[in-house]
Specification:
two-stranded antiparallel ribbon, single chain, 162 residues, alpha+beta
Length: 162
Amino acid sequence: MVTAEQAGGLLVAARGHRLEALFVVALTTGARMSELLGLTWSSVDLDRGSITIRTTLQWIDREPQLAEPKTGRSRRTIALAPMAVSALRRHRTRQLEEALRVGPAWTNLLNLCFTSQVGYPLKRHSVLRRDFRPLLSIAGLPETLRFHDLRHIAASLALSQN
């Protein structure tokens, strides 16, 4: 099991990373990767400090599609920790700057929070290989840690803080 200190190490390793907000939100909310990759800006309320899980990102015949969450109970509104709100604000600014930089090549047709640098939906395996595993190494965490384990870490941290 990963300790609170180790989880903090992952957050430190992610600081300044292009997808820092993805990892902060994952560790502070316990949302599934497909829920986070399918999170749209219309489901984010930074003023109230919450996200609403309404969709998940799925790839069907190599095409990205938003789908209903895994179960009815998976549709939920989650309060965000202040650090997650801050990370999402920075991420939104970065994403808008990327959209301006690439101009008409920007492709965020689904209004997703987490996209490639040209607005294309992220692929789960690419995030794991290119982003998550290197951050684990930087943080000194075991490479056997799965992104899904962040859900359990978030639950453990929430329980330890009542």
